[in-house]
UniProtKB/TrEMBL annotation, chain A:
Residues 792-903 form the Beta-adaptin appendage C-terminal subdomain domain. This is Beta-adaptin-like protein. The lineage of its organism: Eukaryota, Viridiplantae, Streptophyta, Embryophyta, Tracheophyta. Residues 636-645 have a biased composition (Pro residues). Its main location: membrane.
TrEMBL record, chain B:
InterPro entries: Adaptor_comp_med_subunit, AP2_Mu_C_sf, AP_mu_sigma_su, Clathrin_mu, Longin-like_dom_sf, MHD. Belongs to the adaptor complexes medium subunit family. This is AP-4 complex subunit mu. It is found in: Endomembrane system. The keyword Membrane applies. One of its GO terms (cellular component) is clathrin adaptor complex. Transmembrane segments: none annotated. One of its GO terms (biological process) is intracellular protein transport.
Length: 904, 450
């Protein structure tokens, strides 16, 4: 390779694709290789180079591995969008899989497995069968992974062709790389299958434990993770396993260490000898601590895992609390986790040391960290009775520094301390009251008010203090209002004098008549009724002794902890959530819908397009033949949408809240006609809200046609819309008119749009970024595509002569050309009518050889004309489009539009 | 297994993007970047290295200002993915010599070739530069390393120390030298990062050394290497945890824990503390170790704050280098947060000093004192006069500090762990490659409370 690869990223102003095409077909090898590199470069920056498919595939038959790899990379990317052409590559693949060079054999199998085209899959089986038995381990290990690839595309095929058995045979392979990949592939297949495929017997166990010692570090992780599913028969076996795994704790790779820890922890559950357990704990501690010397990212993962481990086996790290002290240069996410663990490990023995640390942290710069440190002191006070007094004195010291957020945080935790140790530390209330006016956070305010109410009888001026809050009662947040209400009632019950009596009137009035908050109102009425019917009963209720709280220290529920511990060294242990709450793995086929932003997504028959969606919806969803297809197009099914068992009258589509928008349009009266709108915000993303939208031109006016479907469980209202800066300055001409949407309801609306409002700089782009909000949900953002033809004005018609003059007057550099190999014009007349309907005006037609050449004109606002020449053979695929315009930078947008129009 | 791997620039541009499974939408890079840039969750403003958005799990590590990211939909081992991301960065650096946006863009074909061998269908195959050499055919285009920030712990050898060749840092393991011949050389770096926390009265509250013996070999034919460490080296603290040896500077070196690269054979380690290995190509840690045994901290920090009249205070900072005078620390920076209501700070250095600078960072109210070098045994003082906009609530010392320090000390290691000898299995009597054994100590978290 010569020169710098980055030169491939530079582009010529016009005709990049034709130029590349020429170079790809060059007779010189080097030139072809360079051209393929350029194509790959274009591909990585997101340009659509799919039209070069045939030309690139032609370069595939080469002995040059470097070039071959590049072509394969291209194939993997585009085969999905060009399934018919991809078949051209099959012969070379099959040939390559028998090449004498093992690298080429492996490469062929590896690449074929990545091409997710059904037709190719059939041809994959024979080469795969051969490669699974190849002499070269590199080929075998690649083939092992390929079985998992194939299973993902077509599970049945894998089972029918006996690949699972071959894969299981590979577990006994003499090459550890092959074993590791076979294990990884089997584990994945098992994960996606309901029947037992990969069961670990004591026989496989011992084989794998042996392979463990020779594997690469990554292979060790695969094997350890697979083995962690194994349940030892008894304590003896468990001890044996642990003994084989323990040396892995010494590995430099953190992933190996954590997977080994997981394995050991699991087997420990079976081990009955306390000596063995104690010994194991001792062995695990140093490697766990060593994980904290790794990069901060890994430290974070280690800390989240350690957090779980110490909840089950606190002794492991009981003596290591020092290593969890925060370093000043730790990232905040590490510091926060360390604090959690420090609280968990805090004991009567080390509390002085720990408090000293917390106190230091509480004076640091980072506000969030400081707050957490203050809270940590409180939690230690609650957890360790004998240390409570020391904790409180540290809190008081901190309050005296009078840093606002420290004071507020301290008051919140002191409230909890009072709950834990009633009637013990009330002497500090006076100090707390000094900070009363500085409180501005709801939680701190509410806590302080609770303290005043709870101890009203000991605070001489409790009524004055509460009264000072009452003036602003209507403006306070609900949390504070509720506490004020309760505290005033307590005060009144404890000191039924004149002052409190007046106060209670004011509060009850405020909390019943003047409020809209049902919680507050209900509570106020209950107090009111209690007080007016039986004040003594009110006392018994309101001033009843409260149960003493205990320290939760963010302890997890035991059953959850069990599940998480079984998932040590997985994401689950980092999120502290069971896997099924966040794993949303879908079969890859279902993912196709998400390829919308794929540059060529709309041009292919396979990808989702409005027309396809209509077909899919029209066929009964239960018909087995269309299931993979239909499923592919549906974004994750909305839970509220039942599939209709029998044909439902279209009219009802809206009423029963079907999320299948294909049923809605067509015959539906009242709303505007037109094809179904593309879904831009699927219900799965929008928490049940689904938005479909498209720009449309109508009588010289531009509209944004929107369909809102509410599949959530709540009524959504207060819809608003906003458009980001875009190349055409498109913006809403008025507010969005959407009525409140009950669960299951949908509505369609036309939003008038105006141009040139808020133009973005830079080259024209078809990107339209839209934000929609309502009162119940977060703001939703989605992207739409501006299709230029909606802007075509009705004054775009040109006379023949002026067309010719304009064409000549524009320099040749303003001419841009693009070919659409996949498009066919079957009837000139229909096409002309259709184009005319979008204000693309027919001017003339001529014959050139067997081709028809059509000329059109069109105009977009601000008087920018487009002169268009379409060349095609009627009834044959392939349309060439050349345009001339004063603004050639608009050409890509124009081509997108014309492509859409011709396809429709 | 992972679904996608990509590298983003600081601005969020896609530099490399590889999709291995096609199960995560293409817009993931954008979603990721927006999420990280505007992170605000759980009261934190920095995104954790692992998070989930709409069912997609994102992992990232930052390497020389670039974001290395992986996505997945399944419940994978997060340490595996994060470790993998670090390793990919290292492999790419081994190949390109320099890891930067520029070098990645110039070598994108090579990078994709590497990525195809490193990961297949989301499963890690290998991250060993040595193994990859047999499958990867593109040659790197070496970019100018002059102004680029190097990667990894050995990077500290780039910093102005004339005694050591910096070439190991930016030399590609596969590209040939301009002369066509490779120089036979091997680098063994003993790199220690030390963390010390001093109490306000100068006691050591915590101290820790994270050490690495890093190796980078350019020897042809991969001969066997033997590394001998201190004979009295012992591993694992006996007895109680708080049983620190009082003596420092003598006695055996005791490591809390250590681990080794998989190429290391420990046959005779228990007997004579030697490590035998056939070093693979590329940079790799032979051994990582951790030590909390008491050691002599290289610097003592002394800080005094006194009120000096109405709305005024004076800070006196003293730094004393407690290592031999033939050793020099460089790029020393001392920092200290000042009370929030500080409006002005004027500085007074010792008369006649050179290579020192002082700064008051107005935005985060921080004092910064930079010293180009500190010779062993010397002591330096800084006086700063502060002006406040309001009265202090309590004790000023509670609202300032702690003092933190960063530094690099070449040819010094705090643990006293040593490579006694480095033996290369001889091919012939004339074979005598360059051997570089280098020590360096760096501050990790070096803090004095006041």
């Amino acid at each position: 390779m010569s020169g710098h690869d980055s030169k491939y990223f530079s582009t010529t102003k016009k005709g990049e694709i034709p130029e590349l095409k020429e170079e790809l077909n060059s007779q010189y090898k080097d030139k072809r290789k360079d051209a393929v590199k350029k194509v790959i470069a274009a591909m990585t920056v997101g340009k659509d180079v799919s039209s070069l498919f045939t030309d690139v595939v032609n370069c595939m038959q080469t002995e040059n591995l470097e070039l071959k790899k590049l072509v394969y990379l291209y194939l993997i990317n585009y085969a999905k969008s060009q399934p018919d052409l991809a078949i051209l590559a099959v012969n070379t693949f099959v040939k390559d899989s028998q090449d004498p060079n093992p690298l080429i054999r492996a490469l062929a199998v590896r690449t074929m497995g990545c091409i997710r085209v059904d037709k190719i899959t059939e041809y994959l089986c024979d080469p795969l069968q051969r490669c699974l038995k190849d002499d070269d381990p590199y080929v075998r290990k690649t083939a092992a992974i390929c079985v998992a690839k194939l299973y993902d595309i077509n599970a049945e095929l894998v089972e029918d062709r006996g690949f699972l058995e071959s894969l299981k045979d590979l577990i006994s392979d003499n090459n550890p790389m092959v074993v590791a990949n076979a294990v990884a592939a089997l584990a994945e297949i098992q994960e996606n299958s309901t029947r037992p495929i990969f069961e670990i017997t004591s026989h496989t166990l011992s084989k794998l434990l042996t392979a463990l010692n020779e594997c690469t570090e990554w292979g060790q992780v695969f094997i350890l993770d697979a083995l962690s599913r194994y349940k030892a028969a008894d304590a003896r076996e468990a001890e044996n396993i642990v003994e084989r795994v323990t040396p892995r704790l010494q590995h430099a790779n953190c992933a190996v260490v954590l997977s080994a820890v997981k394995m050991i922890l699991q087997q420990m559950e079976l081990i009955t000898s306390t000596d063995v357990v104690r010994n194991l704990c001792k062995k695990m501690a140093p490697p766990l601590v060593t994980l904290l010397s790794a990069e901060p990212e890994i430290q974070y993962v280690a800390l989240r895992n350690i957090n779980l481990i110490v909840q089950r086996r606190p002794t492991i790290l009981a003596h290591e609390i020092k290593v969890f002290f925060c370093k000043y240069n730790d990232p905040i996410y590490v510091k926060m986790e360390k604090l959690e663990i420090m609280i968990k490990l805090a004991s009567d023995r080390n509390i002085d040391q720990v408090l000293l640390e917390f106190k230091e942290y509480a004076t640091e710069v980072d506000v969030d960290f400081v707050r957490k440190a203050v809270r940590a002191i409180g939690r230690c006070a609650i957890k360790l009775e004998r240390a409570a007094e020391r904790c409180i004195s540290v809190l008081l010291e901190l309050i005296k520094i009078k840093v606002n957020y420290v004071v507020q945080e301290a008051i919140i935790v002191i409230k909890d301390i009072f709950r834990r140790y009633p009637n013990t530390y009330e002497s500090i209330i006076a100090t707390l009251c000094e900070s009363l006016d500085t409180l501005d956070e709801p939680e701190a305010k509410a806590s302080m008010i609770w303290i005043i109410g709870e101890y009203a009888e000991r605070i001489d001026n409790a009524d004055e203090l509460l009264e000072s809050f009452l003036e602003s009662f209507p403006e306070e947040p609900p949390q504070v209002q509720l506490q004020l209400l309760t505290a005033t009632v307590k005060l009144f019950l404890k000191k039924p004098t004149e002052g409190p009596q007046q106060m209670i009137q004011v509060v009850l009035n405020n909390a019943t008549v003047e409020t809209d908050n049902p919680d507050l109102r209900d509570r106020a009425y209950i107090y009111w009724r209690l007080l007016s019917t039986d004040p003594e009963a009110a006392k018994d209720v309101v001033l009843a002794e409260k149960p003493v709280i205990s320290d939760d220290s963010n302890q997890l529920d035991p059953s959850l902890l069990d599940e998480l511990l079984a998932n040590i060294a997985t994401l689950s242990s980092v999120y502290h959530k069971p896997p099924d709450t966040f794993v949303t793995r879908v079969k890859t086929a279902t993912q196709r819908t998400e390829d919308d932003d794929y540059p060529d997504g709309n041009e292919t028959g396979y990808a989702e397009s409005p027309a396809n969606a209509a077909d899919g919806g029209a066929s009964p969803p239960t018909s087995s033949s269309s299931v993979p297809y239909g499923a592919a197009r549906q974004p994750a099914p909305a839970p509220a949408a039942p599939a209709p068992a029998a044909p439902v009258p279209d009219l009802l589509g809206d009423l029963i809240g079907l999320d299948n928008n294909a049923i809605v349009p067509a015959d539906e009266p009242a709303t505007s006609s037109g094809p179904p709108l593309p879904i831009l915000l699927p219900a799965s993303t929008g928490q049940g809200l689904q938005i479909s939208a498209q720009l449309a031109g109508q009588d010289g006016q531009i509209f944004y046609s929107l369909l809102f479907e509410n599949n959530s469980q709540i009524t959504l209202d207060g819809f608003m819309i906003q458009f980001n800066k875009n190349s055409f300055g498109l913006a809403a001409a008025g507010p969005l008119q959407v009525p409140p949407l009950a669960p299951g309801a949908s509505t369609r609306t036309l939003l008038p749009m105006v141009l040139f409002q808020n133009m973005s700089a830079g080259p024209p782009s078809s990107l339209l970024q839209v934000a929609v909000k309502n009162n119940q949900q977060p703001v939703w953002y989605f992207n739409d595509k501006i299709l230029l033809h909606v802007f075509f004005t009705d004054d775009g018609r040109m006379e023949r002569t002026s067309f010719l003059e304009t064409w000549r007057s524009l320099p040749d550099s303003n001419e841009v050309l693009k070919e659409f190999p996949g498009i066919m014009v079957s009837s000139a007349e229909a096409t002309l009518d259709q184009l005319a309907a979008t204000n693309m005006f027919f001017i003339a037609k001529r014959k050139h050889a067997n081709q028809d050449v059509f000329y059109f004109s069109a105009k977009i606002p601000r008087g920018i004309p487009f002169l268009i020449e379409l060349t095609t053979v009627i009834g044959n695929p392939g349309v060439k489009c050349a345009i001339k315009t004063p603004n050639p930078e608009m050409a890509p947008l124009f081509f997108e539009a014309i492509e859409t129009l011709l396809k429709a | 297994m992972i679904s996608q791997f990509f590298v983003l620039s600081q601005r969020g541009d896609n530099i490399v993007f590889r999709d291995y499974r096609g199960e995560v939408a293409k817009g993931s890079a954008e979603i990721f970047f927006r999420k990280v840039k505007f992170w605000k969750e759980d009261g934190q403003e920095e995104a954790p290295p692992v998070f989930n958005v709409d069912g997609v799990n994102y992992f990232h590590v930052k390497v020389v200002g670039l974001l290395f990211v992986a996505t997945t939909r399944v419940n994978v081992s997060p340490s595996l993915v994060l470790e993998l991301l670090q390793r990919i960065a290292r492999v790419i650096k081994d190949y390109l010599g320099v890891l930067s946006e520029d070098s990645l863009r110039k070598n994108f074909v090579l990078v994709y070739e590497l990525l195809d061998e490193v990961i297949d269908f989301g499963y890690v195959q290998t991250t060993s530069t040595e193994v990859l050499k047999s499958y990867v055919f593109n040659e790197p285009i070496v970019v100018d390393a002059a102004r680029l920030q190097p990667l990894g712990p050995a990077a500290i050898f780039m910093q102005g120390s004339k005694r050591m060749p910096g070439t190991a840092v930016t030399k590609s393991v596969v590209a040939n030298e301009p002369g066509g011949r490779k120089r036979e050389e091997i680098f063994v770096d003993i790199i220690e990062k030390i963390s010390v926390t001093f109490s306000s009265s100068g006691y050591i509250l915590t101290s820790e050394i994270d050490g690495t013996i890093q190796m980078k070999s350019y020897l042809t034919g991969n001969p066997e290497i033997r590394l001998a460490l201190n004979e009295d080296l012992s591993i694992g603290r006996g007895g109680s945890v708080y049983d620190y040896r009082s003596s420092s500077g003598a006695g055996p070196v005791i490591l809390d824990d250590c681990n080794f690269h998989e190429s290391v054979r420990l046959d005779s380690f228990d007997m004579d503390r030697t490590l035998a290995l056939v070093p693979p190509d590329g940079e790799f840690p032979v051994m990582n170790y951790r030590m909390t045994q008491e050691f002599k901290p290289p610097f003592r920090i002394n800080c005094l704050i006194e009120e000096a009249g109405h709305l005024k205070a004076e800070v006196i900072l003293k730094v004393r280098a407690e290592f031999p005078s033939n050793i020099t620390a460089n790029t020393v920076v001392v920092q200290m947060p000042l009370p929030k209501y500080t409006t002005r700070a004027s500085f007074e250095l010792e008369p006649g000093v050179v290579g020192q600078r002082t700064d008051f960072k107005e935005a985060n109210k921080k004092l910064e004192w930079g010293l180009k070098k500190i010779v062993g045994g010397s002591e330096h003082t800084l006086r700063a006069k502060l002006t406040f906009s309001q009265e202090s609530h309590a004790n000023i010392t509670k609202e300032a500090g702690p003092v933190s320090m960063t530094f690099t000390i070449p040819m010094y290691n705090a643990s006293r762990l040593q490579v006694k000898y480095l033996q290369i299995a001889k091919k012939s009597s004339s074979y005598n490659p360059y051997r570089w054994v280098r020590y360096v100590t760096q501050a990790n978290s070096y803090v004095a409370r006041i």
